[in-house]
Amino acid sequence: MAKSEFDQHLLALGGVVVQRLQARGIQRADAEDAVATAYEKIIVMLPDLSVRNFDGWFYRIALNAFLDSLRRRQNETLNAAIPEPAAASPTQFAEMLAPLPANQQELLALKYYYGFSYQEIAQLLGLKPASVKTMLARARASLRTKWEE
C-alpha cells in the first residue's frame, strides 16, 4: 500500500472506529479522543509495528484508550470525594465509610485517613502487602458502588 493509500485507509478506519465506539454507547467526543490516542500510538509504534490484523488492533487500542480515560475520571472523582485528613474530622470520615463492612472501613481509614502504606497496613494486620492492595481495591469498589446508588 502506498503512503497516501495507507493515510486514506487510516483516516477512514478512524471514522469507522468512532462509529463502533458510539454503537457501544460511548459519547462521540470521547470516541474521537480515543481514536486520536490510537493515532498517537500508531505514530510512535509504526516503524516497529508488526500486526496481522491492523484494523482490529487499531480498534482495540482506541477502546483501551477510552477505558483508561474512564478509569482516570472515576479515580479522580473518588479521590476528590475522599477528604484530606486535616479537612475531615474522624466523625465525618466514619460517616462517609458507614455503609461499608467494618473490615473495609478499617482498611480505608488506615490508608486514606492515617496515610499508612500497603506495607505498614500489612504489618499491622498480619497480612501480605498484595492482599492489602487487593482488599483496598475491593473496598474502594464497594464504596464507589454505594455512592452510585
Automatic annotation (TrEMBL):
Organism in which the protein naturally occurs: Lacticaseibacillus hegangensis
Domain RNA polymerase sigma-70 region: start-end pairs: 21-74
Keywords per UniProt: DNA-binding, Sigma factor, Transcription, Transcription regulation
SUPFAM superfamilies with a match to the protein in the record: Sigma2 domain of RNA polymerase sigma factors, Sigma3 and sigma4 domains of RNA polymerase sigma factors
CDD domains assigned: Sigma70_r4 (cd06171)
Residue span(s) of domain RNA polymerase sigma factor 70 region 4 type: 93-143
Matching PANTHER family: RNA POLYMERASE ECF-TYPE SIGMA FACTO (PTHR43133), RNA POLYMERASE SIGMA FACTOR HI_1459-RELATED (PTHR43133:SF8)
InterPro entries: RNA_pol_sigma-70-like, RNA_pol_sigma-70_dom, RNA_pol_sigma70_r2, RNA_pol_sigma70_r4_t2, RNA_pol_sigma_r2, RNA_pol_sigma_r3/r4-like, WH-like_DNA-bd_sf
Lineage: Bacteria, Bacillati, Bacillota, Bacilli, Lactobacillales
Family: Belongs to the sigma-70 factor family. ECF subfamily.
Top-level taxon of origin: Bacteria
Pfam families, alphabetized: Sigma70_r2, Sigma70_r4_2
Protein name, entry field: RNA polymerase sigma factor
Gene3D superfamilies for this protein: 1.10.1740.10, Winged helix-like DNA-binding domain superfamily/Winged helix DNA-binding domain
